[in-house]
Amino acid sequence: xxxxxxxxxxxxxxxxxxxxxxxxxxxxxxxxxxxxxxxxxxxxxxxxxxxxxxxxxxxxxxxxxxxxxxxxxxxxxxxxxxxxxxxxxxxxxxxxxxxxxxxxxxxxxxxxxxxxxxxxxxxxxxxxxxxxxxxxxxxxxxxxxxxxxxxxxxxxxxxxxxxxxxxxxxxxxxxxxxxxxxxxxxxxxxx
Length: 191
Description:
Elements: H1 2-13, H2 16-41, E1 50-61, E2 64-76, E3 82-84, E4 88-93, E5 99-105, E6 107-111, E7 116-127, E8 133-142, E9 147-158, E10 161-171, E11 177-187
Antiparallel strand pairs: 1-2, 2-3, 2-4, 3-6, 4-5, 5-7, 6-7, 7-8, 8-9, 9-10, 10-11
């Protein structure tokens, strides 16, 4: 008798309705698998999670403003990195609560893992008290160690002199700095 039940079950399975159901189900599974493969093969989004326009950020320490950052655009990434594609202006305040040093650049990228800012383009650092002004095409700023450094060509205007060379290390307020490979000092005459 079991033999005849198996034959009846096989006849039911061969019915046109069941066959169409199995065929349709197989097509759906095959189609959904190909869609899943398309999703897996897609390139991951690596762009910014957020973009801010016309930013002005105040940074404080013990309720005292120590820095003000202004920029036309800021992009924040999932890794914690930040980019200022149109550059920024960073004012570093002194004890008298006034800006003492201004750091500007055409493009800046902050790497969270290294806690390091890389500035490119027309990079300038100016100490407003002394009037000393650095100009270079690339500069790194480490806020933890409170220092600037570069391996690129630098020009530093100081009083009536212009100092040039390759590489520079200096403190954050730009009161103490050293050109690593000096190439010359030029006097500026007032006319």
